[in-house]
Write a structure and sequence with these properties.
Layout: H1 2-11, H2 14-27, H3 51-66, H4 72-84, H5 94-103, H6 111-121, H7 131-140, H8 147-156, H9 184-202, H10 220-225, H11 237-240, H12 248-269, H13 271-292, H14 302-318, H15 326-350, H16 358-375, H17 383-409
Length: about 425
């Protein structure tokens, strides 16, 4: 049977074999678009069988899969892509990408970071992102479209240089945010009030202290936290003395100033920067007092308060062009500082019983200025501001290092320690 079949096929002419091949192609649906009257095997108008026809048929399933609906995630990304493709060219450039990131509440991202993001996602290196590149980028950089993570940019990245035509005035004020809430100075103030009340309650039944509310330094809180030059080995006292206040007026004045000025700074610079400035002022106050007047006891948060005052001056200097009414604010703080300085000098010369620690005030103010330049946000860094930053940081650490070395290696300069 197989030999007979082969001999029969060989007996056919080439024309007959071609006709049979065409007939089988038509029956298999290879030419579905050919009208019925043209499907005759003898019709010469029928196109010849070619390899390309087979390839086209193999691509049909792929085309059908592309016609299926997009996934929900991909559809959302396409809507986001089309929304920010402002020129409708099917591509997203650097400016459009920056607009997208800004909508994610990362308003202060610098242009060079946007360009880096685009370059990393630009697979074909044409300087733009098509939808496929954009979709792949969204899978790897979801922080760009999620508000919780993009908030990170606002805390650590300074805002960009403004585009031509933008107004600089007021850029500093626009950085104010109540998230997270400015509670640093409020928390410090609450602790100071509690420590004050502990001593007041302790002496409430003592007739000798009825007329001097909270002015005793023998209460449990004051005894534990006050800066005592005879107990310098208890190193926490160099900071903890800020919780002790002598008299209700001493406490109220410090609370009012530190809350008012501290919250204003924290709205722009965030809690940890303000806390650093405040504590640096407190530490500098005790360190300066210990070095210049080694037998003086110290109480109160005035070193931190003066640090906040001069920190405002520091941020005005560093953000002068970006602040609204910067000259007015600077003059207001300078007038306050010189008025307080003049009042202090007058009180010191006229009052023989004056016990105000002016060195602590001065040391705290100097620390607030230097640390403020070093840690507070600078919205637009200029060359001279970089130089000033290095000077401030080096000068502060040089002063603090000198004070620590003197306390450690020159013990005879200070009063003998009491361990009772």
């Amino acid at each position: 049977m197989p030999v007979k079949s082969v001999s029969r096929q060989q007996s056919q002419t080439p024309a007959q074999q071609l006709q049979q091949q065409h007939q089988r192609d038509v029956e298999n649906g290879l030419y579905p678009n050919i009208p019925a009257e043209r499907r005759s095997p003898t019709n010469p108008a029928r196109p010849p069988t070619m390899r390309q026809d087979t390839i086209d048929m193999e691509e049909v399933p792929l085309n059908r899969s592309n016609s299926q609906p997009e996934s929900e995630d991909r559809r959302k990304m396409r809507q986001l892509f089309e929304k920010h493709d402002s020129d409708r060219d099917g591509l997203i450039d650097v400016h459009e990408l920056k607009g997208l990131i800004s909508c994610g509440r990362c308003h202060d991202i610098p242009p060079h970071i946007t360009e880096q993001i685009l370059r990393r996602s630009d697979a074909d290196n044409n300087g733009h992102l098509d939808f496929e590149e954009f979709y792949v980028m969204s899978l790897h950089h979801k922080w760009m479209i999620r508000n919780m993570l993009t908030r990170y940019c606002r805390y650590v990245v300074p805002p960009p240089r403004p585009l031509e035509g933008d107004e600089l005035d007021g850029a500093y004020e626009k950085q104010m945010s109540i998230c997270p809430p400015p509670l640093t100075m409020v928390i410090f103030s609450i602790i100071e009030i509690i420590m004050f009340l502990v001593d007041v309650i302790y002496f409430q039944d003592d007739p000798n202290h009825n007329q001097r509310l909270g002015e005793s330094t023998n209460g449990p809180a004051a005894t534990l936290f006050i800066y005592n030059p005879y107990k310098r080995y208890e190193s926490w006292r160099f900071l903890s003395y800020m919780f002790v206040h002598v008299g209700i007026m001493h406490l109220m004045m410090n609370l009012i100033i530190q809350i008012f000025l501290g919250i204003a700074l924290e709205l722009v610079h965030h809690w940890w920067r303000v806390a650093l400035v405040y504590l640096a002022g407190v530490l500098a106050g005790s360190m300066g007092t210990s070095l210049t007047s080694p037998r003086i006891f110290l109480a109160g948060a005035s070193g931190g308060v003066y640090a906040l005052i001069t920190a405002h001056i520091a941020t005005i200097i560093m953000n002068y062009s970006e602040m609204e009414y910067a000259i007015v604010q600077l003059l207001a703080f300078l007038v306050f500082c010189f008025t307080d300085l003049g009042t202090s000098v007058y009180r010191h010369l006229t009052d023989q019983h004056d016990q105000i620690g002016y060195i602590a005030h001065l040391s705290g103010a100097l620390a607030g200025l230097l640390v403020g330049i070093g840690v507070l946000r600078n919205l637009e860094v200029r060359r001279w501001e970089r130089i000033l930053w290095w000077i401030a940081v080096i000068f502060y650490f040089a002063l603090m290092t000198t004070g620590i070395i003197v306390h450690i290696f020159v013990p005879d300069y200070f009063p003998k320690a009491e361990y009772n």
